[in-house]
Every structure is written in C-alpha cells, then in structure tokens.
Design a protein that fits this description.
Length: 395
C-alpha cells in the first residue's frame, strides 16, 4: 500500500476499539500495521460473530489493512521475538492498563531500551494522575461519568448511547496524537508517549454542557429528544416513520417560520427572540412542527425541509441506513470479503478524505496468525526456528 504514512511501521497490541481503530486509521493512510494477538485469538476478535470461525462485526470494522501474528509475550522466547519486532517499529499502540503494559514489557521505559525513538500510543479508561488511574473500564463508563447519560432520555431510567462514541472518539484523539508525535520525531528525533483516556474523551465531548453548568448553575434535566438551547429541535412522527429537525440560529429559524407560512406569529413573539428563548419555549415550537410532520410522509418531510435548507434527516433502521441512496452514492461503505462470511461486509471507510493522498481499504482484516511466518522471516527467523517457536507454543 502507498499513502502518506508509507514507511511507518505500527505494532498493534490494542484490544476492542480505542487502540485497534487508532491503528486502523494509520493503516488506511499507508502505515504498515501488525496486529499482535494471543495464540487462540484475542477476545475482541469474536464480538458479535458473523463468520464461520466466529470473527465478529466489530473486528471486521476496526482491523482492515492489517497483518496479524500470534505471540505469547509472557515467555522468555516470546519476549525475544517482541524485542526484534519493536526494534523495527515506529509506533506501538496498546490501550492496556499501566500494570499490564509493565507486565508485558510494553511500558515506555522498556520500549525505549529497545528503540530509543519509539512512540507509545496508549489509552486507559480513566487517565491520570488520580485515584482511579489503575481501574479498568469500557465506553459506557465514560458516557455515564461525563454527564451525557444523565441528560439522555427522559431520566428514569437514564439511557446510554447504543454506539461506542467514547471508544471511537478516543481512537480519533489517539490517531491525531500519534501523527503529531511522528511530526515531532521528524523534527527532533525524539519519541514520546501519546496517552488517551475514555473519560477525557467523554468530558471533551460534553464540555459545553459542563461549562454552562459551572458558569451559570443551570441544573438542566433530561427532556428526551427535545432540544434545550434552540428550537425546533426534536424527533417528529410522520405518516410512516420519524424525522429529526434541528434549527439553531436566527437565519434558520426565519427559514422555518417562512416554511410554516407563519412568519408574523413566530418572528415577532419575544418568547422566540433568540436561540435560548426558543429552547426555553421549545415545547410550543415543537408542537407546531409535530403537526406539520404528521401531515406528511417521511420522504415528503425531509425533501421539503431539505429544499428549504433546514437541517433534517430520517430516523433509519440499520437496514434502511445500508439501503439509503445517499449513503450508497457517497461511497462511505466499502464491501469487503472475508473467509467464511456468507456475504461481503460493508466496512466504513475512514470518515475523512484527502484530495491528493486519500486513504483506502486495500486489504481485508487478517485471519488469526495469517502473517506470522512472513513477519518472523522478515525479522531473520528461518523456517526451522519458526517451527520450534510454534511447537513451543510461543506463536
């Protein structure tokens, strides 16, 4: 593969999303990424299985363009293999707790002893310093501790998001940090640690809500889909489904009032003079929008709102998302083969496009240990030595 990161070698010891997807983004723009797994497969390989061998949907999403080797790094001979690998690498990605990094000799001091200019990209649940630094956690922990879940739904019970936005947000931050570290190394020759944290990501995404609370002590409570700082901002029932409409800013509100045919009513009432006033009186505005939507099909509603340049979209099921004409035409998803799948998997390309050096999904995700022999041969192991490592349970 070519690409802007061609010549950069990344060792991916990551698990689940934050580490592996960070490495995937680097791979999509040309880095050589080697995923290192347990001999019987790492647990994240088998989440939401869709293939004959148990490979899961999550694995297929976040591991394209990678090579895969199996290795037991907790043995003396496994450590020797790992040292040889590290000596050839530019970046190590490992979203593992600090104590696990130390046990595997993937902590920064151990890595520097092998490769002085190495970059270690890591992510933890809670970050540090702090009393929870050594605790473990998944995406949901960041969601619930950031204020996001408290504000989602109607409040009893609170709802977390069905998608892992904290994990993927952390992966994006880590990929950005890794690129910055590579630029710095190109200038100074120094490696460094790039550290993300799920809780830090979640707090950064909810920061405006936290700022509002800290500064004016507003003490907001959840209001379902009804927006609180502008209106109309809600999800509305149509004749055959649901649509979202979000109006923020006075120019958009003027367009909406014109579309309703009631400019005099909405634009001269002090209750609707600005966004925050409209948010405070959002139920009144939403009631009018609900009546408008109820008279139309979803397609009619989104087409009319779209032509009026008002932000809108239909509420789609997963199958409807796959079938939507714009999603298909824009090429956001690429069909990828994988051994044992009953059909191709629609894998989302990196959600950023470079005009001159675009990324690409050039290779399917690897099968377990698919590239072990090839990678070890590149490190200087001959066939007999590889056979001994395999017989000894090292690979």
């Amino acid at each position: 593969m070519g690409g802007v990161l061609q010549g950069v070698r990344v060792l991916d010891f990551g698990r689940y999303i934050a580490g592996p997807y960070c490495a995937t983004l680097l791979a999509e723009f040309g880095a050589e990424v080697i995923r290192v797994e347990k001999r019987d497969g790492s647990e994240d390989r088998f989440v939401a299985p869709v293939g004959e061998s148990g490979e899961g949907a999550l694995f297929l999403q976040v591991n394209r363009n990678k090579k895969c080797i199996t290795l037991d790094p907790m043995t003396e001979r496994g450590q020797e293999v790992m040292r040889r690998l590290i000596a050839t690498a530019d970046v190590v990605v490992a979203n593992l707790p600090p104590q696990t990094l130390r046990a595997m000799k993937l902590d920064y001091d151990s890595l520097k002893a092998v490769k002085p200019d190495i970059i270690l990209t890591t992510a933890t649940a809670f970050g540090g310093p702090g009393p929870w630094s050594d605790r473990v956690g998944f995406d949901g922990v960041g969601q619930v501790m950031s204020g996001s879940v408290y504000m989602t739904g109607a409040g009893d019970p609170p709802y977390r998001a069905a998608v892992n936005w904290v994990d993927f947000g952390t992966a994006l931050h880590c990929a950005f940090g890794t690129l910055a570290a590579l630029i710095e190394r190109g200038k100074s020759g120094r490696g460094q640690i790039v550290e993300g944290a799920l809780l830090a990501t979640a707090l950064s995404f909810t920061n405006a809500t936290l700022i509002e609370q800290a500064v004016i002590n507003v003490n907001r409570v959840p209001t379902g889909n009804l927006g609180q700082t502008a209106a109309p901002a809600d999800i509305y029932r149509t004749k055959d489904g649901w649509v979202l409409c979000q109006v923020t800013g006075h120019p958009l509100f003027k367009r909406w009032a014109k579309l309703m045919g009631e400019e005099e009513l909405w634009l001269n009432d002090p209750r609707f003079a600005d966004d925050i006033s409209r948010g405070n009186n959002g139920a009144v505005i939403s009631e009018r929008m609900a009546r408008w939507c109820a008279m139309r099909t979803t397609q009619e509603a989104v087409d009319t709102l779209g032509k009026a340049m008002i932000p809108t979209g239909p509420v789609l099921s997963p199958q409807q998302a796959l079938d939507h004409p714009h999603i298909r035409a824009a090429g956001f998803l690429q069909d990828v083969d994988y051994p044992g799948l009953p059909k191709q998997a629609p894998v989302a390309r990196a959600a950023i496009r470079l005009s001159e050096t675009p990324g690409e999904i050039a290779a399917r995700p690897p099968t377990l240990g698919e590239h072990t022999d090839t990678v070890l041969a590149e490190l200087g192991y001959d066939k007999a030595e590889i056979a001994v490592l395999r017989q000894g349970g090292i690979i």
